[in-house]
Amino acid sequence: MDLDMDDYMDPYEEAEAEAAGLGGPAAEDSSDEDDSEAESDYEEKSYGHLRSGKHRVRNPDGTFRCPFCPGKKKQDYKLKDLLQHADGIGVSSKHRRHGRERAVHRAFARFVRTDPSFREELAGITGIPGAILPTDANVAASANGTSKPEVDTAGSNSAAAAVASAPVAAAAPPPQEVEKYVWPWVCVLAAGLGFNPEDFASRVAMFNLAELIPLYSDEIEGSEAFAIVRFTNDWGGFNDALTLENHFSVNKLGKNEWHTRNSGGNAAKGDGAEGDIKVYGWIAREGDYNAASVVGRFLRKHTDLKTIDDVSKLHSERSGMTVAALASQIEAKNRYLLDLETKKNATEFSISRLEADNRRLHEAYNEEMRNLHRRARENALRIFQDNENLRVELENKRRELNARAKQLEKLSAENASDKKKLNDERQKVS
pTM value? Predict the structure, then answer.
C-alpha cells in the first residue's frame, strides 16, 4: 500500500526553520544532520517526548496516527501499517530523507515496540521484526525455557537475532554509578589557617568565572577558608570549571591533596613567596553537596545535583521550549502582520474611494462653472444684440418721424398756398 511519505517535514524542524527565518526544510548537506551522533541525540529526545505523552498516537476510532507527519491526509493507520511507515522512513537513505526525520521515526518505531500499551495489538502482528509478546505469551515462553528475540530498539527493519535457550538466565551486572555534579557549575576553593577568604579572587583571576563567593565558617567548624566559584550554566561554563580543576590537579592542589595534606599545620606554605599559603581547588560533586561543612550547606541551599545526562536533557528541553516560544512568537507576529495588512488594504480602498469622490466633485464643480460662464457670456451677447436692435429700430423710427414731419410741413405749406389762392379767387369773384 502507498503511504505517501515523500514530502514529510518534521514539526520540530519546521518550528526551528521558522524561528531562523527559513521557508522550508534545511539543506540536505547540513553538518548537524549528517552527524550520526547528533541524529542519535535527536532520536533519544523524541523518544523521551513520546514516553512523556506529549504526542497523541491513538485515534478515537481505534486507529493510529503518526505524530511526526501532521500534514498528511492519512492519519488512520493500522498498527502494522504504522510500523511499516515508521521503519521505512527510519532506514531510508540520508540523500532521500532528512536526518532528523529519520531519527524521529526510528524513535517512534522504538516507542511502539516497547510501550506496554501496544502489547495486545502487537501480539496479533506477524512479519514485523522486534514486536513484543503479550504478558501471557512471555510467561509461556519462560516456562518452556526459551527466550524470544529482544526488542529492536533502533527501530530498523533488521530482525532481532534469536537467543539460545538456557534453563537459568544469567545475572545482570550491577548498574554503574553515574557521577553527579553540582549544577549550576561551581568549583570549591580551600585554604588553610591564616588565609583571608577575600584573597581567593587573586588566585583564580586568570580563569573565566562568573562570580566568586567567599564563605565564612564558625570557629567550631575549623579555621579553614573556603570560597565558591560560580560559572555560567552552559557547557562553556562546565569546560571553564574543568579547566580550573585541571589547573589545580596538575599542580597537586586538588581535592585529594586537600584531604591528605600534612596535619602538622593548618596553613601549608607554598613554594613561591615567603608566607604564601597553598590554595586548593576542584569542581563540586556529590560529596561536596552532601558534606556537613559550610560548603555543603551553601551548595544545598543554592544548587542541585545533576548528572551530565540530566543537564543535557535540561538543555534540550530549554532549546525545545525556546524553539516553540519563537515559533509561537513568529506565528503571533504573522497574524499581527496579516491584521495590519488587512487594515492597510481597507484604508487604501477607503482612500481610493475618497479620492474618486473628490475627483468627481471637482469635475462636477468645474463643469458647472464652465456652464455658468457660457450662459453668462450668451446672456451678455443677447443683451448687446437686443440693445443694438433697439437702437437701430429707434433710429429708423426717428427717421420715419422726421420724414412724416417734413411731409406734414410740405402739406401744410401746400394747404396754405391753396387757401390763399382760394381766397384770392373769392375776392375776384365778389
Answer: 0.39
